Amino acid sequence: MMANLNSTVIYEYIVTAFLACWFLLTILNQFKDTKLAEFIRIKIDVFALIPLWTFFAPRPGKSDYHLLYRDKITEEQYSEWHEMDITEERTFWSWFWNPEKRDKKILSDVVQSLVSCIPDYRKATGNTNLLMFSMPYIIVLHAVSQCKKQSPNVYRQFMLAETSGYQETNPPALILLSVFHQI
User: Fold this and answer.
1) Of 127, 137, 182, 130, whose CA–CA distance to 160 is shortest?
2) 104-133 b/e with 16+ CB inside 10 Å = b?
3) Which of 37, 67, 113, 134 has the highest local Cβ count within 10 Å?
4) Neighbouring residues of 105: CB distance < 8 A, sequence distance ≥ 6
5) What angle separates helix 101-125 from helix 135-145, to the nearest 10 degrees?
6) Is 13 contained in some domain?
7) CA distance linking residue 82 with residue 75, whole number of Å
8) Mean pLDDT throughout 127-146?
9) 77: domain range?
10) Residue range 42-56: mean pLDDT, rounded
11) Domain total of the chain
12) What is the distance between the alpha carbons of residues 112 and 106, in angstroms, rounded to a whole number?
């Protein structure tokens, strides 16, 4: 009976020590520009179990991204630009029933990932031609290719634009304009 009690206490100490270390590493990992946080992410966090939260700081989201697409119907004829919703209006029932939430969140995250890798491609190659082979680009292209087509044989182009602030005083800034892809 005494041995069983001792083993229970030992397990509690082990679990407590593990959770305390995990909590401490989580706190230290939040200072992502330090050498210690880099060491934690590279050497210790092999399985990516230590969270890194950057919801509001140091660089909160200050702009919105817009995904637009158009079709090339003939050599001289193009459709109007159509915006694909990557965010959604919240309704009263969104907290309870929101089946599109995951799809919109995935697309929003992929668009942000695509935007964040554009400077790397420009720096590495001087242009963004190789960006077409990146996973975020392919996912965005797949998403816009699922939208309604003007005709069965169509070429589609998409554009990423950015707006800042609540007031629409500044025009959207062009981030990326794709080539036409046959879909």
Assistant:
1) 137
2) eeebbebbeebbebbeebeeeeeebeebee
3) 67
4) none
5) 130
6) yes
7) 19
8) 88
9) 63-182
10) 78
11) 2
12) 10
Is there a single domain that holds both residue 76 and residue 10?
Answer: no
Judgement on whether residues 99 and 154 belong to the same structural domain of the protein: yes
What is the total residue count of the chain? 183
Count Cβ atoms below 10 Å from residue 144 Cβ, excluding itself: 21
The verdict on 30 and 111 lying in the same domain is: no
Q: Could you report the per-residue pLDDT of 7-36, keeping only the tens digit for each?
A: 888 999 999 999 999 999 999 988 877 889
- Residues 25 and 97 placed together within one structural domain of the fold: no
The model's pLDDT over 94-114, given as tens digits with 9 standing for 90+, comes to 778 877 778 888 888 889 889
Question: Same structural domain for residues 12 and 75?
Answer: no
CA distances from 40 to 21, 30, 44, 59 (A): 12, 10, 5, 21
Rounded to two decimals, the pTM is: 0.63
| 40 and 90 in a common domain | no
Give the pair of three-digit tokens for residue 144: 């816009």
Residue 76 and residue 163 share a domain:
yes
116-140 mean pLDDT: 84
CB 140 within 8 A of CB 114: yes
